[in-house]
Amino acid sequence: MIKGKKYVRISAELILSKISEYDIFRFYMPNNGWKLGQATYSPFRDEKNPSFLIGVRGDTIMFIDFGDTSMKGDCFEFVKKLYNIPTFHEVLIKIDNDFNLGISSGSDSKEYKKIIKSYSQPEMVAKDYSFIQVKTRAFTHEELAYWNEYYQDIEDLKANNVFSIAEVYLNKKRIVIPDNELRFGYLYDGHWKIYRPFSDRKWKWMPNNVPITAMDGKDDIKDCDVAFINKSKKDYMVMKKLYPCCCAVQNEGMGCFSDENVQFLLDNSSRQILSFDSDETGVSNSKKITEMFGFDYCNVPRKFLKDGIKDWADLARVHGLKVIEEYLINKNIIQ
Question: 115 phi and psi, to 5 degrees?
Fold first, then answer.
């Protein structure tokens, strides 16, 4: 009778039968002070303001880096990206070895239990990154004046689900916002993106639980010739004053362009023009995305960068809609 170790094929399911997704994130996450559903510092770069989040989506724990939304996924993808591991199988082997699970070696190790018993498992509550509650109010004169600089009146704001915010609660805790600070809420199918235009970078777009794949203006590009794709709601609202077939993604990251969104764009337009900021980051991201999907791109002329203008909204605010209109005519986007 031949005796030997029984071969067991390592899998994600086997690993998760011994340890949890949370255990994996906790073990490898450099910042041990992080909490589920709360912004923390990205492990992929040095930064002054938290832009990284690990949260519950449905029945699983996911991560997303809002500074580079191509960096997202589950606990296994996190380990893969953190250590630049080329294959999924190698990720599983690393986790197996680091926790001493004994799966690939065929041993009956219990050492991993010492690791996971040193802390409590968090309560798994799906929060779509964070649970946001908002109390709205009537727009103030200052808020309407702000939007008027971008050629938007109160009817435009209502049509685009932009609200004035009285109070904001993040995971049922109120966020204190000074009464004299401009703050707006963008509502997307029950999800909120809070916009504080004059706040510091940390809180300018937070809290925010809007799915990264949410798009503005999908109805505006149905059956159109050229779909003009902006990188923000404000740019979309401004450009729609000049060209009706506009839409907008959530930011300049690749993560916005899900298979579903790309297919929708291709099915509903003959040509797609991407328009991100004209700074180095915007141009770089434009090139990557357009090369991948075969889109064209048209950014704000770089000559305006010296004035601190890199997007359509600020170009309209400073130089007016006529300048943008003439530029789009020269580019044969509008006639």
Answer: -70, -50
Residues forming beta bridges with residue 301, ordered by sequence position: none
Q: Is pTM, for the whole model, over 0.70?
A: no
Kindly give, in sequence order, each residue whose CB lies less than 8 Å from that of residue 302, ignoring residues fewer than 6 positions away. Answer: 278
Cα distance between residue 321 and residue 301, in whole Å? 14
Query: Mean pLDDT of all residues in the chain?
Result: 88
Ranking 52-56, 119-123, 202-206, 242-246 by mean pLDDT, the lowest is 202-206
Q: What is the mean pLDDT of residues 4-10?
A: 61
In 3D space, the residue among 16, 72, 120, 74 whose CA is nearest the CA of residue 256 turns out to be 72
Q: Which long-range contacts (CB under 8 A, 24 or more apart) does 86-90 make?
A: 89/10
CA distance 167 to 177: 8
Q: What confidence score (pLDDT) does residue 170 get?
A: 80
Closest CA to 65 of 90, 34, 23: 34
- How deeply is 323 buried, as exposed, middle or buried, from its count of CB atoms within 10 A (0-12, 13-18, 19+)? middle
State pLDDT tens for residues 168-221: 988 777 887 888 889 999 999 989 999 999 887 667 887 888 888 899 999 999
Contacts of 141 (CB under 8 A, 6+ apart): none
Structure confidence at residue 8 (pLDDT): 63
* Rounded-to-integer distance, Cα 268 and Cα 312, Å: 24
Supply 88's token pair. 């999924």
DSSP H helix total and E strand total for the chain: 12, 12
State the DSSP code for 40.
B
DSSP codes, 266-327: HHHEEEEEEE--SSHHHHHHHHHHHHHHT-EE-PPPGGGGGGT--SHHHHHHHH-HHHHHHH
Token pair of 53, please? 């989040």
Q: Is the pLDDT of residue 12 over 80?
A: yes
Look up residue 104 and give its two tokens.
Answer: 């690939």
Please tell me the distance from the alpha carbon of residue 24 to that of residue 9, in angstroms, as a whole number: 20
